Amino acid sequence: MSSVVFALDTIVGEIRRRGETPLVPHPPTPLDVPGFVLLAPGDRSVVYAREGDGSEPVFRVFFDRIEAYSDKEEDVRAMIDVATRLGWTSVDLSGRPAFVRMAGLECDVRKFPATGYVPTPLEEEHSDRIARAAFPEPGF
What we know:
Blueprint (H helix, E strand, L loop, with lengths): L12 E5 L18 E6 L4 E5 L6 E5 L3 E4 L4 H13 L5 E5 L1 H14 L3 E2 L5 H5 L1 H8 L6
Parallel strand pairs: 6-7
Antiparallel strand pairs: 1-5, 1-6, 2-3, 3-4, 4-5
Helix pairs in contact: 1-2, 2-4
């Protein structure tokens, strides 16, 4: 007998809001996220999928955290975009090592305070090169 895995059961990581949390949880405001579609707005969360591939959830936004179902660079970048657009000032990262590394590097490049990931000495040494690769300037 084969088992079916529901996509929302395959969390690879989490971006959790740090700092003051509202006393009364409120549902997150659905945001327009370029390259992504709103899959399921709910009472307590909002689920996003990649545009053109709207059947598989990529991340789910709650009032105090973002659950990640992918550790792909463009997906993690969108999750960090959502966190900053929601006004979060810092985050805690957790999950599978590949996700935490990708999210940590993305936060580091943006100078967005995050805990849960410590860059390797090589990543620290080449942080400028990593930033240029992540955010290339026009004309270069």
